[in-house]
Amino acid sequence: MLRVLRSRDYFLFWSGSFIANLGVWIQQIALGWLVYDMTRRASLLGTVSFCGNAPILFLGLVGGAIADRASRRAIMLGALSVIAATALTLAVLTASGHIAVWHIIAISMVAGTASALFAPAMQAVIPSLVEPGELLNAISLNSVQFNLARTIGPALAGFAYGTIGPQGCFALNAAGFLVMILMLARVRLPRRPPGAPPPVGRALRDGLGYARRHPVIAPSLVLVAVMSVFGFPYIILLPALARDTLHLDATGLGYLMAAVGAGAVTGGLGLSAAGDLPRKDLAAGSGAIAFGLALCGIVLVHTMPATALLLFAMGVLQTVCVASVNTTIQTVVHDGMRGRVMSMMTVILFGFATAGALMIGFLGDRIGVPRALAGGGVIIALVASAVLARAPALAGGAREALASAPDGRREAGNPE
Fold first, then answer.
1. Could you tell me which residues come within 8 angstroms of residue 371 by beta carbon, excluding any fewer than 6 positions away?
2. Are 340 and 120 in contact (CB under 8 A)?
3. What's the helix, strand, coil split of the chain in %, to 5?
4. Rounded to an integer, what distance in angstroms lies between the CA atom of residue 113 and that of residue 83?
5. How many Cα atoms sit within 13 Å of 312 on the Cβ side?
6. What is the pLDDT of residues 143-173, one digit of tens each?
7. Signed CA dihedral, 99, 26, 172, 163: sign only
8. Is the distance from CB of 260 to CB of 235 less than 8 angstroms?
9. pLDDT tens, 224-282?
10. Is the distance from CB of 322 to CB of 309 less than 8 angstroms?
11. Is 78 helix (H, G, I), strand (E, B) or coil?
């Protein structure tokens, strides 16, 4: 399952991403504690989170268009440098005692803007680092490192916050991104074919039209969108579920979050061990249906162990679904459209989940969070079933695209 790490370039990319994501989760936990300690207002926690994610929602597609017209290495190194600088600025302001909430909000927006440029370019380079037959393995292990960091990072944050303070946590995040910059600078990427790119506005229209008309990409994005809007908000609403339904404290919430992360890691490792699945459509569609049914089970569990077990299963299923869809899209998309299409994935996974949390949270205030989440699970199961029925050969379509057109072939070239 770890064979793809034998690739020098992918190993540098994977290990650098893991170190950087550890720092991200350390800073996220420390920043939340700092904001609440400064204000004692829970609403400002949501404000800071929204300001960090809003640029991805509004600029993610632009980031994809830029990733298809400029050097992806330059985009990633520049964006990572900005993110590292924002973390270092937080550390200096906190250590000096001059930190204010408006500083945190402004810095979060700057970091979010850099992330909106970084994410599509990062997603677009993964197929360049491995052989086509190892793409599912590479994407699965990339999901593993993210979720492993999500499991370990909060625990490290609690220890670091008590020993070196929030400023030390922010400095650790800056150091993690500097490590990733150094590793990414050593990665060899294929040279992009020459040619004058279209204007950004036209590039966006072309990318949206390409995805809408594509027989494999369009249903794949629909599947991820319904998961993101109606399913993934369960992570954001987990504190309300833990406190009001299970009557847990912050420690109990930590156990539930760890269960999700452990399930996601298990799902990623399982996909990596399975190798290049011949029917990714069944893995994605069945995973989505099973995830929706598991989400419906939220209304049936009333103890912490049972809920943790259910969340573990949901972590496995969401990783199986998203990684399978990601691999399917990466297999068939033309390299000239890769950045724009992967930016759609980024906007769906991060921006749509934020909007979905507002909707599910509003409904949860009226009928209860478990019932609201269960309603979302029903919608996911129904839509996923419809996608499989109307587009029953996502994986088959991918193989046909590779056989009949150059869209899905990985374009070779000299290293940048």
1. 299, 364
2. yes
3. 85, 0, 15
4. 9
5. 11
6. 888 878 877 887 787 788 888 999 999 999 9
7. positive
8. yes
9. 999 988 988 887 777 778 878 888 775 677 678 778 888 888 888 887 777 666 666 67
10. no
11. helix
